[in-house]
């Protein structure tokens, strides 16, 4: 697929900011799946040096401890304003986060979904991120086998996986979210499962009617259920920790919240310089003002 021109403009701005420190940029999310480039575009920027991205040791330390860090970007383009949510983490962190033995499920689950390599600094960076995304898929399909039915269609396994990963996070999503993700690229998911299982050495048989039959022992499934329960509990704690971190490190977060407010309520709110510098301290007064304006109930 060609990179849409608005997404390319945002990628160019990200690379111009980070320079050679930017190893790769990944374009993903609902906008990529639907082809719609309005609203908020989603990118992951993978860098060699975290301090080289924002020149901030405290932010780099926070990102090293709890990746990624999230930023809101606005870029003028052809008389319009392009908007993006940008997650930043080290390319080494990204590779580790796609491993099967990792506790955090968010990265590998996200990057089993359609993703575009929007920028690669050089062939080595391209190969490194492609290997990590491949590993994300094999990790996901191993969990799909361990958490899914003993036999079923490829769709059955993917839906079981996404149901499990969404329940392991603090997400405001409908129960049918996993189904809708598969619907956007059903043929892709069906085509990926068998070769990914073969790569991950998951024992299975494919029956003449296209259904898949797993050759896993009850003991393997029991161990997996226990391991996943722990990941589910840890995942919610991790999400809370990320929200707390974002309150202090979300670059451009105030502008992002103002844009979301206007998009959903039609209310435009102007903040004072002090409110912008101290969004947490000024939050009670801002919420009271929004209530009086009818933006919240």
TrEMBL record:
Superkingdom field: Bacteria
Protein name (record): Phosphatidate cytidylyltransferase
Query: Which species does the entry assign this protein to?
Result: Niveispirillum cyanobacteriorum
Which classification does the entry list for the species?
Bacteria, Pseudomonadati, Pseudomonadota, Alphaproteobacteria, Rhodospirillales
């Amino acid at each position: 697929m060609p990179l849409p021109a608005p997404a390319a403009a945002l990628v160019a701005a990200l690379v111009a900011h980070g320079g050679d420190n930017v190893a790769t940029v990944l374009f993903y999310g609902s906008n990529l799946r639907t082809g719609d480039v309005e609203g908020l575009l989603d990118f992951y920027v993978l860098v060699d040096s975290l301090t080289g991205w924002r020149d901030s040791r405290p932010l780099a330390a926070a990102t090293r401890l709890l990746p990624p860090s999230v930023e809101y970007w606005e870029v003028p383009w052809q008389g319009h304003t392009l908007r993006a949510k940008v997650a930043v983490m080290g390319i080494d962190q990204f590779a580790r986060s796609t491993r099967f033995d990792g506790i955090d499920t968010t990265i590998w689950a996200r990057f089993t979904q359609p993703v575009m390599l929007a920028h690669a600094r050089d062939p080595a960076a391209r190969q490194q991120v492609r290997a990590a995304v491949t590993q994300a898929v094999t990790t996901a399909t191993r969990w799909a086998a361990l958490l899914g039915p003993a036999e079923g269609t490829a769709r059955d396994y993917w839906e079981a996986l996404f149901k499990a990963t969404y329940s392991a996070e603090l997400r405001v999503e409908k129960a049918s979210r996993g189904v809708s993700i598969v619907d956007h690229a059903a043929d892709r998911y069906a085509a990926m499962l068998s070769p990914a299982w073969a790569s991950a050495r998951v024992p299975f048989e494919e029956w003449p009617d296209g259904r898949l039959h797993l050759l896993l022992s009850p003991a393997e499934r029991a161990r997996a259920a226990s391991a996943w329960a722990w990941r589910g509990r840890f995942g919610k704690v991790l999400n809370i920790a990320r929200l707390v971190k974002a309150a202090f490190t979300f670059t451009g977060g105030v502008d992002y919240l103002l844009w979301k407010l206007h998009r959903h309520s039609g209310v435009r709110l102007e903040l004072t310089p002090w409110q912008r510098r101290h969004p947490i301290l000024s939050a009670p007064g801002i919420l009271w003002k929004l209530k009086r304006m009818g933006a919240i109930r």
